[in-house]
Amino acid sequence: MKVTDFIGAKATYDERGQTIWGVSKDGIYQKIANVRGWRAIQNLFKAPGGLIDEDKAASFQDDLGKWIVDAINEKLQREANQTLNL
């Protein structure tokens, strides 16, 4: 089995659960990963007094998840194009 068989036709990101999903051609969702690292991420948004800007940290975590999904989808598309050019 190839990794692309497990992921499916595309990847998508769910902000509510910080979850990356693979989606088959038939629309079946397969959980691929959760975007973790909250402890490290929140510390990126610590104010001088030690308070954390939770909204900015959560937004960054979502941006990271979307970035990963974009990278997966770009690779899936590149591999599909290579297959068509054979």
Report on the architecture of this protein.
By secondary structure, the protein is an alpha+beta fold. It has one domain. Helix content is 49%, strand content 19%. The protein has a three-stranded antiparallel β-sheet, covered by helices on one side. The longest helix is centred in the C-terminal third of the chain and has 31 residues, at 54-84. It is elongated.
Based on the structure, what is the oligomeric state of the protein chains?
A: single chain
Rg, nearest Å = 16 Å
Low-pLDDT stretches are none
User: SS-based structural class?
Assistant: alpha+beta
Strand content: 15-25%
Instruction: Provide the number of structural domains.
Output: 1
Helix-strand topology string: HEEEHH
Inertia-based shape: elongated
Annotation field: number of helices: 3
Count of individual beta strands: 3
Strand order of the largest sheet: 1-2-3
Mean pLDDT: 94
Work out the helicity level.
Answer: 40-55%
**Termini gap:** 20 Å
Strand count, sense and barrel status of the largest sheet are: 3 strands, antiparallel
In short:
This protein has a three-stranded antiparallel β-sheet, with helices on one face. The protein has 86 residues and is α+β, with helices and mostly antiparallel strands.
How are the secondary structure elements laid out?
Blueprint: H1 3-7, E1 10-14, E2 19-23, E3 29-34, H2 38-43, H3 54-84
